[in-house]
């Protein structure tokens, strides 16, 4: 190599090194420079860089958590232990999942300070009504082996919702639950609840993913300062979500997976999501969404995937 070629080679290497530094700075900004898009303030970063949202009562809730529907027995316990070890702090369960005992065992096994966790459970429809809701809550707490819940939701708007809500308000005021909320409530059902509620729900957990974007609910919840939380953030992979062509192209562009693009999309809309997985590789993969950013074109392309209908008609 002659001396001119050597100089060119050195310059080329310097250029590559500074590009790597610039890319690293870009990733850093992507992690820490996210604006508040839903309406609640994205606050401190917690374990492994999962930001919090601030609920309407001031409680902080991680914007990304771990779902446990369909996980049972040892698989459930192992998956929750792995999730906590990987960095998840929000764990979502429900009485009807039949796994609160295993979730509780996993929490103990994880060795993590209870105060570091954000545990959600839900009141099932069989326990609707004032007296039953109080009993249902105590059962949940006993099964989980916990002293309090961070978030307790009415799982579905069935039966005596007014009685259930009154019981939950009392438990909230007594400090047994840090925040109370609802799940699967339409804007009309929410309006009804708000007509008598003394404590406004902090969260509404509803089906939300690229195929069912819930834009009306999104706006209504935002107006009321009620945090939207997505269940089935991947639509459980229904309708080919993991191999969707648009998501695949966006994933390729960012060197990510379609699962990560899906979760990043929820995050950039300010929506809490709770993906579930029983595979360690997926559990870790689903956490790694804070080092890239979807641009406007990506967000618009995903918006067009909306079919505006549930992918779980059997649950309606
Ligand atoms: N409030 C309600 O009425 C309600 C209703 C449904 C769900 N939920 C809550 O929301 C949570 C999430 O919903 P969900 O569990 O129904 O469905 P989901 O999170 O949309 O999808 C779970 C499925 O995705 C797969 N998966 C996860 N990560 C993946 C990855 N990186 N790549 C490829 N596949 C991946 C999982 O398989 P692997 O195990 O193989 O990874 C599993 O089959 C539930 O677990 C539950 O806590 C609430």
From TrEMBL:
One Pfam family cited in the UniProt record for this chain: Aldo_ket_red
Chain segments annotated as transmembrane: 20-38
Keyword flag Transmembrane: yes
UniProt-listed InterPro entries: AKR, Aldo/ket_reductase_CS, NAD(P)_OxRdtase_dom_sf, NADP_OxRdtase_dom, TAT_signal
Ranges of residues in domain NADP-dependent oxidoreductase: 65-306
Entry keywords, A to Z: Membrane, NADP, Oxidoreductase, Transmembrane, Transmembrane helix
Family membership: Belongs to the aldo/keto reductase family.
Source organism phylogeny: Bacteria, Pseudomonadati, Bacteroidota, Flavobacteriia, Flavobacteriales
Family annotation (SUPFAM superfamilies): NAD(P)-linked oxidoreductase
Name under which the protein is recorded: Aldo/keto reductase
Alphabetical list of PANTHER family matching this protein: 2,5-DIKETO-D-GLUCONIC ACID REDUCTASE, NADP-DEPENDENT OXIDOREDUCTASE DOMAIN-CONTAINING PROTEIN
Presence of the UniProt keyword Transmembrane in the record: yes
Record-linked Gene3D superfamilies: NADP-dependent oxidoreductase domain
